Amino acid sequence: MGWWVVVEEQRGMGENRNWSLSERFPFADRETAEAEALRLAREYQPAYPWSPKSRQVLRGPGGYLVVVEGRTSTFHFRLSVLEEI
Fold first, then answer.
1. Cα–Cα distance for residue pair 61/39, rounded to 1 Å
2. How far apart are CA 57 and CA 71, in angstroms?
3. What percent helix, strand, coil does the chain show, rounded to 5?
4. What is the mean pLDDT of residues 72-84?
5. pLDDT for residue 6 is more than 90
6. Is the distance from CB of 82 to CB of 8 less than 8 angstroms?
7. Contact 53, 69 (CB under 8 A)
8. Which residue in 57, 53, 55, 46 sits closest to 72, CA to CA?
9. Domain extent listing, the chain
10. In this model, does residue 11 exceed pLDDT 80?
């Protein structure tokens, strides 16, 4: 048993955008997982947009929602801190 940071992000363009599980990172304890989730919220490079200009990090229960504005479009990804049971 342990804790995971899970990255879900939008993939595709236009009407073909969908949610996808991109990454899973295991950790032994919640404190380490939460610290890594915050680091990833600030530094993770999502698949889209290709040319990020700005990033807005929002914290909520269990993780973060990150909005990344690119040159021509805006995408977002979600980081969740989850306990394996």
1. 17
2. 18
3. 20, 55, 25
4. 92
5. yes
6. no
7. yes
8. 53
9. 3-83
10. no
